[in-house]
Amino acid sequence: MIKFDNPCLDRPYLVFKEKYNESLIAKQDNIEAICISSYSPKDDEVNARYVNLKFINDNQFIFFSNYNSPKSIEFNQHEQITASIYWSRTNVQIRMKAYIKKTSKEFNQNYFAERDEKKNALAISSYQSSPIDSYEMLKKNYEICLKKNNLNECPDYWGGYSFTPYYFEFWEGHKSRLNKREAYKFQNDEWIHSFLQA
Ligand SMILES: Cc1cc2nc3c(=O)[nH]c(=O)nc-3n(C[C@H](O)[C@H](O)[C@H](O)COP(=O)(O)O)c2cc1C
């Protein structure tokens, strides 16, 4: 589940919450899953991967990751990202464009301290996306880490990312194929709304 704190009352945020609630009621699996696309200037290529959206805090969307991972290196080099969600139970796609930044150390530490220690051991023990000789080795590193006694201390290389969209697009699939698309773009301090052809 995504946790909504101090919800933003701007129109696209209200639409997001409404579609989220409908998908939650429809028992959408993996409702937190969101695909984050980023650009690597070094390789001149676009990458995408799913993460779990944990919070929407006012107008900030927040997920957590390893700060040394390929995605984090890309975010450092090119802050603009695109995020997309598809909720199959309600046949809704949401696309967002935003600039991404790290959450504060204090926020990361507080969140880490309240998480399950087994989950924390995974975050601590893994050099995310680095090659390893075998899957067994990954498990061994994790098991060694489980025996440590500082599993509530957030390492510097792990934490949150937050993004505040400047663009939202809501796509609603209809049986007739006359799918409904609505976009909201933040321009000159206001949200400009438009309908898009399907
Ligand atoms: C449904 C789903 C949720 C995921 N959630 C996260 C997450 O919250 N944070 C994370 O770092 N990786 C998560 N992953 C793994 C990422 O997709 C990815 O494999 C990993 O972060 C490495 O990405 P990178 O090499 O682009 O940095 C998730 C994968 C799936 C399929």
Written account of the structure:
The protein is α+β, with helices and mostly antiparallel strands. The protein has one domain: Pnp Oxidase, Chain A (Roll), CATH 2.30.110.10. Helices cover 27% and strands 40% of the residues. It contains five helices and nine strands. The protein has helices at residues 11-25, 70-77, 105-113, 117-125, 135-146; strands at residues 3-5, 33-40, 45-57, 60-66, 80-87, 92-102, 158-172, 180-187, 190-196. The chain has a six-stranded antiparallel barrel. Helix 4 packs across helix 5. It is globular and about 55 Å long. The two termini are 30 Å apart. Bound molecules: flavin mononucleotide. Flavin mononucleotide binds next to strand 3, strand 4 and helix 2.
Concise synopsis of the structure shown:
The protein is built from five helices and nine strands; from the N terminus they run βαβββαββαααβββ. The chain is α+β, with helices and mostly antiparallel strands and 198 residues long. It has one domain (3-115, 156-196): Electron Transport, Fmn-binding Protein, Chain A (Pnp Oxidase, Chain A).
